[in-house]
């Protein structure tokens, strides 16, 4: 598989995870630009980062 295609797939998966986490946190703001959503705060970004790390750790554990 071409590296460019793999990177595109990884990007799509990452964006999908971000939307999934945002929806769980109640931040489903539709078509607002990221600059506007950015004003909702670093705390939300911190929560999303923690969730992504937890998901990654679970994936690593399950692959062993």
TrEMBL record:
One Pfam family per UniProt: SASP
Top-level taxon in the UniProt lineage: Bacteria
InterPro entries: SASP_alpha/beta-type, SASP_sf_alpha/beta
Molecular function GO labels: double-stranded DNA binding
Biological process according to GO: DNA topological change
Function, as annotated: SASP are bound to spore DNA. They are double-stranded DNA-binding proteins that cause DNA to change to an a-like conformation. They protect the DNA backbone from chemical and enzymatic cleavage and are thus involved in dormant spore's high resistance to UV light.
Stated name of the protein: Small, acid-soluble spore protein, alpha/beta type
